[in-house]
Amino acid sequence: MKLLIKNGTLVLKNGEKKADVLIENGKIVKIADCINEDCRTLDASGKHVLPGLIDMHVHLREPGYEGKEDIESGSKASVAGGFTQVCCMPNTNPVCDNAVVVTYIKHRQGEVALCKINPIGAITRGQEGKAMAEIGKMKAAGAVAISDDGKSVADSNIMRLAMEYAHGFGLKCLCHCEDINLVDGGVVNEGYNSTLTGLKGSLRAAEDIMIARDIALSESLDIPVHICHVSTYSGVEIIRSAKKRGVKVTAETCPHYFILNDDIITSFDTNTKVNPPVREEKDRKAIIEGLKDGTLDCIVTDHAPHSAKDKQVEYNFAAFGMSGIETSFPLSYTKLVKTGILSLSELMNKMSANPAKILGLEGGELKKGEVADITIVSLGEKYKIDSKNFLSKGKNTPFNGFEVYGKVNYTIVDGDIKYGE
Amino acid sequence: MLTKKDLLGLYDTSAEEITEILDAADEMRAFLDGKNKKSDLLSGKSLLTLFYENSTRTRTSFELAGKYLGASEVNISVAASSVQKGETLIDTGETLDSMKIDFIAIRHSMAGAPKLLAEHVKASVLNGGDGMNEHPTQALLDMLTLRRKFGKLKGLKVAILGDIKHSRVAKSNLFGLKKLGAEVWMYAPETLIPKAIDKFGAKIACSREEAIEGADAVMGLRIQLERQHGGLFPSLSEYSKFYGVKDELLKYAKKDAVILHPGPVNRGVELTPSLIDGKSSEILEQVTCGLAVRMAILKLLAEYRENNL
Questions:
Q1: Is the pTM of this model over 0.80?
Q2: Strand, coil or helix: what is B7?
Q3: ipTM of this model?
Q4: DSSP for A341-404?
Q5: Do A199 and B133 touch (CB under 8 A)?
Q6: pLDDT of residue A314
Q7: Is the CB of B270 inside 8 Å of chain A's CB atoms?
Q8: How confident is the model at residue A402 (pLDDT cuts 50, 70, 90)?
Q9: Does domain A52-366 have CATH number 3.20.20.140?
């Protein structure tokens, strides 16, 4: 099986180049100025050819919460968003804390998924923060990392032991940083807007304390660690200074943290409710600085689909999270590249190469011999975000009506076109 | 003329609208002193009180306001309703709307609940207190009490002491009083002051004396025992010692200053019993003004509905 992509502009690690790409048996076999081959050909004139996008932080809800999303709908949404690989967090029901659930997810990938689904195992059994989960067995079944996403491990010693034990299996801890005692039921950022709305606030410190703790563990143990969904200016600074002194820390943020500030909560629209909460303008600016100077390595979505009934309730009752996988690329391109903050290559590093490197996944780069995970986009195409068009079951986005550039034309996984007209 | 079908808070209500409500409430206050407390202003209209939190005075006040103006009334007792069976607020609202209710007075423990309801019903929603957000009718009754006493609100200094952080009353008063030109001072343990409240125009005092100095009104806010269990202060007795309003502090206030409290009051905690019962106390007048304010709002919203819906 061969596939030829002709006349596109390739986005490479250090810049862009017009070239053709020949794919054979799921691999990129040739990149050259002009390739002629008698096989299926995609004309990418006027389009950009990107390394397949990788989202290392999504929630696919299966098993257990299929009303919100499942692996089939989540993968459809993923390829529609240009993603060839996603890594799904373990807060399912049952929790993905053992090899059986990991195997189930991999099995479902084989049955229904359009993109690669990489399961992330829980750090502790039942995500209870008490006893270590069977990390070795989960790795053997296909887990690519461990995480306490959604439910921070409060006990520092348990976190330490898990980091050490997982390190022996070559798995990284993806840390959900939240001091739950300090959060104390808060649902929005604590500040001017929490006072205005009367919605209970949560301090930046609730996130920063755990970022600092997990970095301290990483530094003391000399074990790499990854910080999830950074939302505070002070958290960016903690990570920046740790990186400066050589701590093996990487970090991610999400489009809502570099595009929105907490003025949005004054509408009481529950689609603005997310954890950690969207914070203030100075945080948003610092997140952009962190993306620019490399403090923040990755852009992830924290895709958190919910059904309407989870959101059409009082703000306090509403579920945390935003459905983000179908808007991540156009939003990031529009708000970071079109504005001149990042180059397209830099954006691709954050949305593909760096996640691949951090988790040791294939893909991430357009080069000969690499797996043929490729996304083709029309950067000039402008449209309005409308969640009614989402393929995800979760229509919960605060970005409805946003005008964005960058339409995904084709998503190619292992050389097969999984999305495209 | 009011410009919205609902009264959700004073943050979104203009100075002109507040003044209009207070003017109408003045007339209602006079009406309440009359012998015959029956009007047919709202005859043929219906009022429902939907209280998800316990309340005696606010609920009774809404009910009587409707009754005195001739509206038909229903009261939903939350324990007996389908709320207990897990019905959503939106479903409840749509069901009530189908029963052609004109006004819904709601109290809810969660900020934003009245707004959510208002967006899903044709009825006019009156916020009777939502979580830590707003309690507009309480603030309006405080403002009516003060305006009747002093003839104006502009230039008055109002000192608010107590649990400000969890108080929708303090916030609505701050928004309303500032709009009409009064000065609002606050004093409480730092654990009971919400973030950035000064950015809304509140002045944060460094002592009880500073808060009360030259004040025209001193308002105590209820300290709830559960706040002590939440670790926000060590004990009620320590609170009272350092933050309670004592008789001798009143000497810092203006001579004709009044004592206010939204009730129910913890005697001897926020305010001493002698202040509560003393000649400066307007606490009972507040209750009567509350009735007048709610009657005025019902009247004005009925006019709005007549003209706009």
A1: yes
A2: strand
A3: 0.92
A4: SS-HHHHHIIIIIHHHHHHT-S-SS--TTSB--EEEEEEEEEEE--GGG-SSS----S-TT-EE
A5: yes
A6: 95
A7: no
A8: very high
A9: yes
